[in-house]
Amino acid sequence: MEAYERLTAARAKGRPTGLCYIRNIFTDFVEMHGDRRFGDDKAVVAGIARLCGMPVTVIAHEKGDSVKEKVSRNFGSAHPEGYRKALRQMKLAEKFGRPVICFVDTAGAFCGISAEERGEGQAIAENLMEMMTLKTPVISVFIGEGGSGGALALAVADEVWMLENACYSVISPEGCASILWKDSSKVKEAAGCLKITAEDLLSLHVVERIIPEPEPFDGIYEMLQSELSHALLEKKAEDPSELLRKRYDRFRRIGAGA
Amino acid sequence: MKLPKSLFQKPENPLEWFDSRSKSSMPDIPDQMCISCSKCKAILLTGDLNENDRVCPKCGYHFRMNARQRIGLITDADTFREMDRDMRSSNLIGFPHYDKKLWHARLESGENEAVICGTAEIGGNACCIFVMEPYFMMGSMGTVVGEKITRLFEYATEHSMPVVGFTVSGGARMQEGILSLMQMAKTSAAVKQHSDAGNLYTAVLTDPTTGGVTASFAMEADVILAEPGALIGFAGPRVIEQTMRQKLPPNFQRAEFLLEKGFVDEIVPRAQQKDYLSRLLSLHEKEA
Fold first, then answer.
1. Section B63-73 average pLDDT
2. What is the per-residue pLDDT for B21?
3. Cβ-Cβ contacts under 8 Å, B95 against chain A
4. CB–CB of A182 and B21 under 8 A?
5. Which residue of B has its CA nearest to A191?
6. For B132-184, how does the pLDDT look when each residue is reduced to its tens digit (9 = 90+)?
7. What is the DSSP letter of B44?
8. Could you tell me if residue A165 is inside a domain?
9. Does the beta-carbon distance from B172 to A256 stay under 8 Å?
10. In chain A, what residues touch B179 (CB-CB under 8 Å)?
11. Among residues A127, A128, B113, B267, which one has the fewest Cβ atoms lying within 10 Å of its Cβ?
């Protein structure tokens, strides 16, 4: 399948969003709100739940379902407070020894005056730094769109998995086409050039695993439940300093042959 | 010193560099002798401007400055030792026309990549230093930029040295796709390690510092300084204008705006930077 078709599937109306995964994979979900600094960003959902009995911290971008909900969740494009809320929950996960699972689905961090004046760049940067040394296992699963820094801010993980049709890109193909070629009709071409599909990223060693999308789609929850609990139990058993060393190396080697 | 041609062109919108067509349609200034100040419109002789460290003598506007000139301005004479000078990017994901772009960038800047790294002394204080190069694809961060900065921080951690970094960047380099984005995480990892070992990192943000560089090592410093008037932000102003469909306030995303919002520690004019950094480094000197 062409990159652009994948992108269209990743953005398709009706594709399950973050909360669907939270509700169907975990039990006893308790949502936690706010970053304790500015407010509560509904583009990011965070809380505690059980995964096959094991307490975990769950964080997800949430694009919303109905039009009204999409607007209230800013279409899954988070402000700085969304990333700060996520980091706060990750720090609590570290404190209580809970693994962290992030579901990534965002066109990107929000681009607007409100986000800039509250330090969008600083908030993302802080997450990258802090997640790198978070002393608990972290797995990020890309369920739809993975837009640039706004996706990476929830994806500095021990393992990154991508659904078959999920995408992950340094810039939206639209943005790339309009900047490089001043021609937004070249989106398809840009999508191909940028190497954004799960297959591309697996071959570039940026992700560890591709999760096939079953038919009917609902089968994915059971599959993810068992895969996540299996992987996290394994990581939990690892020596924390070894875990962090591997996490550092995971990113350190990308582009090191330059 | 031979200066790149683009030094004599009027500073453009920070994102303008992406578009080669608009560049070629820019009027050539005869003899490249004069330049008009973007702020006060005064006509300045380029020789005078360079002698004044590329700051307008009339209004104090800070023009862009190439990395070598900046190293000369900030470090003590004959103390700079460059590291990884020969590292060059290649077209890792086969992006169309990237090879040509790289070739052009090397020619235009006289550098192999968009950052220069090394060790130096500033007012007698030993440090590691990186300076990004605006005339190499507007300081965009690809794998080589990420790798050089990471190696510098690793070297600094190993030798317990402070890092001083001058940023200028249009953001992650899209021609290297996701591998560029990963450099944000990689550099952040090295900064964190350096920080956790108790070392000082000072960043000086210069015009423009945007995108993936703002959202990684530019904003991760212990002390964040900025040049007057520098554009600093995550999203570019044009993107925001298009999203919001409204004009942005005049000072928006400028160094002064960030100071007011609490995201930079101080705005330091170019002429005072060396003294300022020297004092800061000396205040953090480790007991022997």
1. 96
2. 40
3. 193-194
4. yes
5. B177
6. 999 999 999 999 999 999 999 999 999 999 999 999 999 999 999 999 999 99
7. E
8. yes
9. no
10. 204, 206, 254-255
11. B267
User: What is the model's pLDDT at position A213?
Assistant: 97
Measuring CA to CA, which residue among A141, A124, A54, A117 is closest to residue A82? A124
Output the pTM of the full model.
0.93
Rounded Cα gap, residues B195 and B197, in angstroms? 5
**Interface size between A and B, measured as CB pairs under 8 A:** 176
Reported as a pLDDT band with limits 50, 70 and 90, residue B30 is: low
Q: pLDDT grade, residue A235 (50/70/90)?
A: very high
Fill in the DSSP letter of residue B231: B
Residues of A in contact with B220 (CB under 8 A): 125-126, 128-129
Asked if A171 and B184 come within 8 Å (Cβ–Cβ), the reply is: no
Domain parsing of chain B, residue ranges:
65-283
**Distance (Å, whole) CA A175 – CA A182:** 9
List the domain range (segments joined by +) for residue A190. Answer: 3-217+227-247
Residue A182 domain-assigned (yes or no) = yes
Nearest CA among A55, A129, A130, A133 for reference residue A97: A55
How far does the CA of residue A246 sit from the closest CA of chain B (Å)? 12
Tokens for A254, please give them. 């990308």
**Contact (CB, 8 A) for B155 and B101:** no
B234/A124 CB distance under 8 A: yes
Calculate how close chain A gets to B50, using CA atoms only, in Å.
31
Provide mean pLDDT across the span B13-27.
45
Residues 6+ apart with CB under 8 A from A249: none
The model's confidence at residue B31, banded by pLDDT at 50, 70 and 90, is low
d(CA B9, CA A36): 47
Q: Which of B88, B182, B257 is the best mutation test for A, with the most CBs of A within 10 A?
A: B182
Question: Residue B186 is encoded by which pair of tokens?
Answer: 């990689």
> Which is higher by pLDDT, B11 or A115?
A115
pLDDT (tens digit per residue) in B102-142:
999 999 999 999 999 999 999 999 999 999 999 999 999 99
A127-178 pLDDT, tens per residue? 999 999 999 999 999 999 999 999 999 999 999 999 999 999 999 999 899 8
CB B137 within 8 A of CB B180: no
Nearest by CB to A125, which of B89, B150, B215? Answer: B215
Which residue from A111, A125, A251 is facing B219, i.e. has the nearest CB? A125
CA-closest candidate to residue A139, choices A200, A171, A80, A93: A93
Whole-number Cα distances in Å, A238 to A150, A241, B175: 29, 9, 37
Search chain A and give the residue with CA nearest B144. A258
Question: Residue B274 CB: number of other CB atoms within 10 A?
Answer: 16
Does residue B11 surpass a pLDDT of 60?
no
Rounded mean pLDDT of chain A?
96
CATH number of the domain enclosing A187: 3.90.226.10
Architecture of the domain defined by B65-283: Alpha-Beta Complex (3.90)
Taking the CA of residue A53 and the nearest CA in chain B, the distance in Å comes to 32
Cross-chain Cβ contact A115/B193 below 8 Å:
no
Locate the chain B residue with the closest alpha carbon to A168.
Answer: B178
